[in-house]
């Protein structure tokens, strides 16, 4: 067992964990942040995507000990406060970018990471940026529209 | 009660979403009750074998392990796995499926033992220490090989791998074949695919010792069915079972069945008096959640020289897998029932053979028997067009059932409610600009490029009914239920028997209640998925959520409106027939007397006893039994280009014209259609469950099973026509499965069209680059 100190959504947590504990299990089981979902445990579906020191990572293949001393943002910490939504969350709601919602937190975390790097992505850039995130319900089209909507909200253009 | 303009028909944003986009939805694996322990299953590595012994001693000594269960522990107390439909033993060869393997294993991944431990990691570690001594037996993984003489038998004592076989009479078909100008034969393979919900199966089983009751949270599409199945399997009264479908992360048909794992954990929770949680891994999901499709079809076609298809003679061979899942073997019967598609075909003789193999069971997957039918008949139409040198759109048009012919009974006895197939084809041709596309294709071909245009004009079955005609559904009705409960404030609670898991009925049903009573959408709450809270219902599958569940809600809303009107009339001191109800207000014609819906709701609860003949309260339950089934339809058209060097298929354009009758929320309808199309394209172009000949699964992870990803396909264009159904009061036909039914043949027809200058007349799915490249190579070899 080993002790890790990880800041999650602005709050610092210290826990004694098994060295093999996955970051996603740390978030879900130790901290009760169940918004981050497990879809494949093999980095291939993206449902568990969180931000680690500002970059999107798949938390099913990061060990909790690897996140020691770092900052994690999960879907629960993306919005500025309880009343407001992050532009990406607004985009997904506005454009019906989700159905069952299981891939959605990871999809939103991956897409918000894209907009950090590229505030005005083309449809093709959005599709390629989200290739690591699977969705079975939407067929991705309304997700693409959601990301475009979020980009225009961020640019202050949304009507 | 007619719908007034208002919330119904509007593309209203979903009310489910605020919790889901913030990570605040509660899926089964998010539930952690006090004292929860965790399970891991030990599974068979062999597709067929004799279980000589299972040594659990090392696992039992592992830190944190509470129990390790095998068949010996369950025997006589629980099981077998219940099925949803049966045929008598003289018609169906069958054996029960135990929850954990008895003396035999019959497919890779079959559960042998389950380890219960204090942590998930301990359970998984200990599961590795269970040693099952299995003597392998010869296995058969291919459905056609399973029918060969001398093939290994999945159930040796049955002496055959046939589950059931239904012959078909053929006199009229024979006559039409004799009269035909031409005939052709095709073999069509509808390969296995994985339903692949993003959330796999997940269970929390909690035996509540004080109440003597099982609480089962499970990721299901049909909690009421699970409740029945659990009660039967555990041999306890159903009133001692509560099943909850919390947030469910997709189903697509694979979460209708009740699985051995959830049943054995329900039983283990009672034995251990601890809540037990289990979620399958993605590998377990690909291995041991039911697969879809798995058909081989042979079809002979009799046609006239003008392109009219006169008759079909065919055979469906369907792969049941190693055991009968909930409805699995019966899916094969949907194929002949829909084999005529939207065409006026005079006679069909269709034989069905369902066959056991040493593979995972098959069951419903988005479309369930209808995509197979559409794939056959749509490939047939293209082959006939190709043989006669006719335009495939024109051949379809010549065979369409006329829009004046409804209700129309097909040659296989299916009764279509309504349709206008020319309308949707015309709209597709126009929106696609088919003539321009053909001209461009010609130019591309002259430049040596392999460009193809494909069609699918199809119809399908939604909201199956009536219950009496739905045999052999067995222990399941085809009706649906709704309760409308107006609270004293005038806010509305809707309890629905359907169990949405992404379809959005929390929004659609709130729109309906909002329109009916003139209350705000946010003043309505829609409750589903908890068998202790919701009246008995059936569930969400077969595109029945709106067509059947919505119709039940419509009835309940009508009952409540009628009662509210009687109460209003009493308090307004007016005859009921002079009271009008519009936009949330009851008014008396020609006066200024009025009561709001909220005022009536308050009086119904607080003063209503003054109304003669009325019970207090404002609540109604309704059950809608469809008298028949609805048949939505569509015309899809697409364009592909095949890269001659690599065999890679690029989908350049895809346009779907769908007709699903009236719509509650077009935003949600678009979502259903788009998702379905991509799933259909996935089957046609990349997805495939593959077993090797010894029954080992070769596609057990996302490294091997090719799921469609975001960049795989272009923007899908959507158009629609509206032909209401007379079957339900909403006029809504159902929408969930159109995409998987239309897309698969549409894109395969386009690929064959692209390759047709090379003499290719057929290509099996999935059209992966390697398979297309092989077809190109075969052509080159012929011409070198």
E-strand count of chain B:
28
So what's the overall shape of chain A? globular
State the major sheet of chain B. 7 strands, mixed
**CATH fold type of the largest domain in chain A:** Ubiquitin-like (UB roll)
Order of strands side by side in the largest beta sheet of chain A? 2-1-5-3-4
Domain tally of chain B: 3
Overall shape of chain B:
globular
CATH architecture name of the largest domain in chain A: Roll
Regions with little confidence, pLDDT below 50 for 5+ residues of chain B = 1-5
- The CATH topology of the largest domain in chain B comes to Aldehyde Oxidoreductase, domain 4
Helix content of chain B: 25-40%
SS-based class of chain B = alpha+beta
Question: What proportion of the residues of chain A form beta strands (DSSP E)?
Answer: 15-25%
Helix content of chain A: 25-40%
Oligomer designation: heterodimer
**CATH homologous superfamily annotation of the largest domain in chain A:** Beta-grasp domain
In short:
The complex is a heterodimer of chains A (159) and B (784). Chain A has 159 residues and is α+β, with helices and mostly antiparallel strands. Helix content of chain A is 32%, strand content 16%.
Structural notes for this entry:
The complex is a heterodimer of chains A (159) and B (784). Chain A has 159 residues and is of the alpha+beta class. Chain A has 2 domains: 2-77, Roll (Ubiquitin-like (UB roll)), CATH 3.10.20; 87-154, [2Fe-2S]-binding domain (DNA polymerase, domain 1). Chain A is 32% helix and 16% strand. Chain A is built from 5 helices and 5 strands; from the N terminus they run E-E-H-E-E-E-H-H-H-H. Chain A has helices at residues 23-30, 87-94, 104-117, 123-129, 141-154, and strands at residues 2-8, 11-17, 49-52, 55-58, 71-73. In chain A, strands 2-1-5-3-4 form a 5-stranded mixed beta sheet, with helices on both faces. In chain A, a hairpin with a 2-residue loop joins strand 1 (2-8) and strand 2 (11-17). The N and C termini of chain A lie far apart (52 Å). In chain B, 29% of the residues lie in helices and 23% in strands. In chain B, the strands form 7 sheets. A 7-stranded mixed beta sheet of chain B has the order 3-5-1-12-9-10-11. In chain B, strands 7-15-14-13-8 form a 5-stranded mixed beta sheet, with helices on both faces. Chain B has a 4-stranded mixed beta sheet with strand order 18-26-27-28, with helices on both faces. In chain B, helix 18 packs across helix 19. The interface between A and B is large, with 59 and 56 residues.
């Amino acid at each position: 067992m080993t002790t890790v100190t990880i800041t999650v959504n602005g709050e610092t947590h210290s826990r004694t964990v098994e060295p093999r504990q996955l970051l996603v299990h740390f978030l879900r089981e130790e901290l009760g942040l169940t918004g981050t979902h497990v879809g494949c445990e093999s980095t291939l579906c993206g449902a568990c995507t969180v931000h680690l020191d500002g970059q999107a990572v798949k938390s099913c293949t990061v060990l909790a000990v690897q996140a020691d001393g770092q900052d994690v943002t999960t879907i629960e910490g993306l919005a500025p406060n309880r009343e407001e939504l992050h532009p990406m969350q607004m985009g997904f709601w506005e454009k019906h970018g989700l159905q069952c919602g299981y891939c959605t937190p990871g999809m939103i975390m991956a897409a918000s990471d894209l907009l950090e790097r590229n505030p005005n992505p083309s449809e093709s850039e959005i599709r390629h940026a989200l290739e690591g995130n699977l969705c079975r319900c939407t067929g991705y089209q309304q997700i693409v529209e959601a990301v475009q909507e979020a980009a225009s909200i961020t640019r202050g253009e949304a009507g | 009660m007619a719908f007034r303009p208002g919330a119904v028909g509007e593309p209203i944003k979903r009310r489910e979403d605020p919790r889901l986009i913030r990570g605040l939805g509660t899926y089964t694996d998010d539930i952690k009750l006090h004292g929860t322990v965790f399970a891991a299953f030990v599974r068979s590595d062999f597709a067929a074998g004799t279980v000589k012994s299972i040594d659990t001693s090392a696992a039992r000594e592992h830190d944190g392990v509470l129990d390790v269960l095998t068949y010996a522990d369950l025997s006589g107390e629980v099981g077998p796995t219940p099925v949803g439909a049966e045929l008598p033993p003289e018609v169906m060869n069958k054996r029960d499926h135990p929850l954990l393997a008895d003396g035999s294993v019959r497919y890779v991944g079959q559960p042998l033992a389950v380890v219960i431990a204090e942590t998930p990691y301990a359970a998984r570690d200990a599961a590795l220490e269970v040693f099952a001594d299995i003597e392998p037996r010869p296995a058969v993984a291919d459905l056609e090989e399973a029918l060969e003489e001398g093939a290994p038998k999945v159930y040796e004592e049955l002496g055959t791998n046939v589950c059931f076989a239904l012959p078909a009479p053929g006199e009229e078909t024979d006559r039409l074949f004799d009269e035909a100008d031409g005939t052709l034969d095709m073999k069509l393979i509808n390969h296995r695919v994985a339903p692949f919900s993003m959330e796999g199966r997940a269970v929390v089983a909690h035996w509540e010792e004080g109440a003597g009751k099982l609480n089962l949270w499970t990721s299901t599409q049909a909690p009421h069915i699970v409740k029945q199945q659990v009660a039967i399997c555990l041999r306890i009264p159903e009133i001692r079972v509560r099943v909850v479908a919390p947030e469910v992360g997709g189903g697509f048909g694979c979460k209708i069945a009740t699985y051995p794992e959830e049943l054995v954990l329900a039983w283990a929770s009672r034995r251990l008096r601890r809540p037990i949680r289990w979620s399958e891994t993605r590998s377990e999901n690909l291995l041991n959640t039911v697969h879809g499709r798995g058909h081989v079809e042979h079809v002979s076609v009799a046609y006239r020289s003008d392109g009219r298809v006169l008759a079909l003679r065919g055979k469906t061979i369907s792969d049941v897998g190693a055991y009968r899942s909930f409805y699995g073997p019966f899916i094969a019967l949907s194929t002949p029932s829909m084999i005529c598609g939207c065409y006026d075909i005079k006679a069909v003789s269709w034989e069905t053979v369902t066959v056991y193999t040493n593979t995972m069971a098959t069951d419903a997957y988005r479309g369930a028997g209808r995509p197979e039918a559409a794939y056959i008949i749509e490939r047939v139409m293209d082959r006939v067009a190709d043989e006669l040198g006719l335009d495939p759109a024109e051949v379809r048009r010549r065979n369409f059932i006329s829009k004046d012919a409804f209700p129309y009974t097909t040659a296989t006895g299916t009764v279509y409610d309504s349709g206008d197939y020319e309308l949707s084809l015309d709209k597709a041709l126009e929106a696609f600009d088919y003539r321009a596309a053909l001209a461009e294709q010609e130019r591309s071909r002259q430049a040596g490029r392999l460009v193809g245009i494909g069609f699918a004009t199809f119809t399908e079955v939604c909201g199956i009914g009536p219950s009496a005609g739905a045999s052999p559904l067995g222990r399941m009705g085809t009706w649906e239920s709704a309760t409308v409960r107006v609270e004293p404030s005038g806010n509305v609670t809707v309890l629905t028997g359907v169990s949405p898991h992404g379809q959005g009925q929390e929004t659609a049903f709130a729109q309906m209640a909002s329109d009916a009573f003139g209350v705000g959408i946010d003043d309505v709450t829609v409750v589903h998925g908890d068998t202790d809270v919701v009246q008995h219902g059936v569930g969400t599958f077969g595109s029945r959520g709106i067509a059947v569940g919505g119709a039940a809600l419509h009835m309940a809303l009508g009952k409540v409106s009628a009662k509210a009107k009687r109460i209003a009339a009493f308090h307004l001191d007016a005859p009921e027939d002079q009271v009008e109800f519009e936009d949330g207000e009851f008014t008396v014609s020609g006066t200024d007397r009025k009561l709001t819906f909220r005022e009536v709701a308050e009086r119904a609860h607080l003063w209503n006893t003054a109304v003669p003949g009325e019970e207090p309260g404002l609540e109604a339950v309704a059950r809608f039994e469809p008298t028949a089934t609805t048949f939505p339809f569509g015309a899809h058209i697409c364009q592909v280009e095949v890269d001659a060097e690599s065999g890679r298929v690029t989908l350049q354009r895809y346009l779907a014209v769908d007709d699903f009758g009236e719509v509650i929320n077009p935003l949600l309808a678009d979502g259903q259609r788009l998702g379905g199309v991509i799933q259909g394209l996935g089957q046609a172009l990349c997805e495939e469950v593959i077993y090797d000949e010894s029954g080992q699964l070769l596609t057990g992870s996302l490294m091997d099973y090719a799921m469609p990803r975001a960049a795989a396909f272009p923007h899908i264009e959507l158009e629609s026509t509206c032909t209401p159904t007379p079957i339900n009061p909403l006029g809504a036909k159902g929408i969930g499965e159109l995409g998987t039914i239309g897309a698969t043949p549409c894109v395969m027809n386009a690929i064959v069209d692209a390759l047709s200058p090379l003499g290719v007349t057929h290509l099996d799915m999935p059209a992966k680059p390697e398979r297309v490249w092989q077809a190109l190579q075969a052509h080159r070899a012929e011409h070198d």
